# Entry
Amino acid sequence: MGKERVTVIDIAHAAGVSKSTVSLVLQASPLVNEVTRAKVNAVIRDLGYVYNRGAANLRQSNSKSKIIGIVVNDLTNSFFAELAVGVDMVVQSAGYVQFLANTAESVDRQREVIASMREHGISGLILSPARGTDAADLKPLVASGIPVVNVVRQVAGAKVSSLVSDNHAGMRDAVRHLAGLGHHRIAFLGGFPDTAVFNERLQGYRDALSDMDLALHDELVVSSAPSRAGGVAAIERALLLRERPTAAVCFNDAVAFGVCDGLRAHRLDPGEDFAVIGFDDVIEAQTAVPALTTISVDPQGMGRRAAQLLLKQINAGRADAEAIVSSVRLVVRQSCGAAIDKRERLSLL
Amino acid sequence: MGKERVTVIDIAHAAGVSKSTVSLVLQASPLVNEVTRAKVNAVIRDLGYVYNRGAANLRQSNSKSKIIGIVVNDLTNSFFAELAVGVDMVVQSAGYVQFLANTAESVDRQREVIASMREHGISGLILSPARGTDAADLKPLVASGIPVVNVVRQVAGAKVSSLVSDNHAGMRDAVRHLAGLGHHRIAFLGGFPDTAVFNERLQGYRDALSDMDLALHDELVVSSAPSRAGGVAAIERALLLRERPTAAVCFNDAVAFGVCDGLRAHRLDPGEDFAVIGFDDVIEAQTAVPALTTISVDPQGMGRRAAQLLLKQINAGRADAEAIVSSVRLVVRQSCGAAIDKRERLSLL
DNA sequence: TGACAAAATTGGAACGTTCCAATTATTTTG
DNA sequence: CAAAATAATTGGAACGTTCCAATTTTGTCA
# Structure
């Protein structure tokens, strides 16, 4: 059963009107009489009609396909999962549906999935570019007039909008906070050094050190994969130094969690014996023990904003590149030694 | 620039062949001469042609749309994120692209997104049904002949394939292991009691207790949201009991991590003072401290298998429901007191 | 070379919708 | 009540592809 597809023509026949009228009803056009509308809608329900957007898109402009694409480099990272959820929330309620693809940092996969999405007629794309993406990769897309919003990372020279967090200020605030707590040897742990994000954060770290009149020791900058495992590896190496750091700012929360794991493996208590600050404020950051002090970027909110920006551009028809830097704030929890702070405050009473 | 869309007809003109030939080339048909093929392909590249799958789908059967849908209830949960990544891997390499939607356990959202995906002509659907989904919700989908694979949860009475893990055996093994370590008061923490998964796991817990001649105390079963926060709440309540448990099996890893957090908040050391076992073997389970003993279900592998099953059904044209129960194994790490175990073993030497 | 088979190419209808211009039905107005 | 204005409906072309049947080209063989 349910063999033959029900089309607008079947509806028209059953309702005793023309296919044009049915089409008008489908588009909720004000031109059609209330009673016909009701009749047609009833038939639509009865026959179990399913609108064929493919056919509609053929006739309409591509920008009305009601599909957007989102491609991220690591969905396993909660940051991106939450970003995707944020995007999903707003596109879903705008009646859109999203293609989601994971590139695992492969530019080849990225090229393939973007091509594939284009064939399917996406109206817009939210892209967290894989490492090594360059402007040329996005060229054909933007030339065809499809709005693109880059998130998290920018790609130099690409004429597309972007939404990134204020990496410099965030890291600067983190380091200042640690310096304010009396730390002198503060490490910068995790992240791949060939990314813009890494360099922005690193610059924030450097600037803060010089602001606070602290010396910059290159060996305290330890790069690694931006993952939990990478964090373990980074703290391992940092603890091997003759002069150990007493605190660390981490490339992201995943790294920070790994650093906490690594510290425990060395019988050090994160938050007590060593201060740790993350970046992102992933959902687990608040419930973890110790709760993670981190730079809150609100990934879900970022997803929502990116989606809103994209939808705005889709509706406007024209996409003039706008670069938004999302501000960021330090959330102080236990992992940076707030407990010590509190103890001191209590002793003052 | 790039205003007008390049079509198969433009290619035909430029290459001096007919549109039919171009179409044949696009489908890599063996009917076309090598030299024409090369010529056409060259023109395709030069003009920056983009295949219009929408148009093609209009002419072909819906099962060739090269789109599958995947709807999950909580992408923020790493389990589902990994599942999605697994699905993504196999569909991507099969040349498919996936619609991904998050329902946040809302049947209404679920209904909407499934309808929307259907309008876009998905060839198949992987669904982790929201709580409260019933067979009627899936009726129209399956009636239209679109293969559906339910993952994680089944929906009673729906004639669709399913891929679930062996919840009963997994929980049974977990409890037996704890009992084997000498625990008598073992709690079952977390999860919503109105789900099939919960009940299967609970049954495994009960059966294991009776196998091991342990008494079943109802107050040791504490339900909660299946999240980290839920875990904190559950252990809080369990620790309030006059006779405290000494170990717990948890509904999933998220709950287990929450339980560890909650224990620490009470100055109890998970793995030393209290044994904890999770369910899922999420990626963090191995790197967390203490590393989490858990029932490994390999979410990514599950995603891959679900995708393979779905693609098989799409290609077969006919989807006869098959129910696969994925076997599961206990992975012993630190959180259940393996360390104690080891200590004992060492003392025997 | 002529006849036939095989290989390669092709025109046109079809898919399910939208949109335009045209038509018909209804209401308002002088 | 006729004419004009407005409201509602409609047929048909178009969108970019595939597929079928038909045609043309090329190759083979006696």
Observations:
- Confidence is low (pLDDT under 50) at residues 339-349 of chain A.
- The radius of gyration of chain A is 26 Å.
- The CA atoms of residues 87 and 93 of chain A lie 10 Å apart.
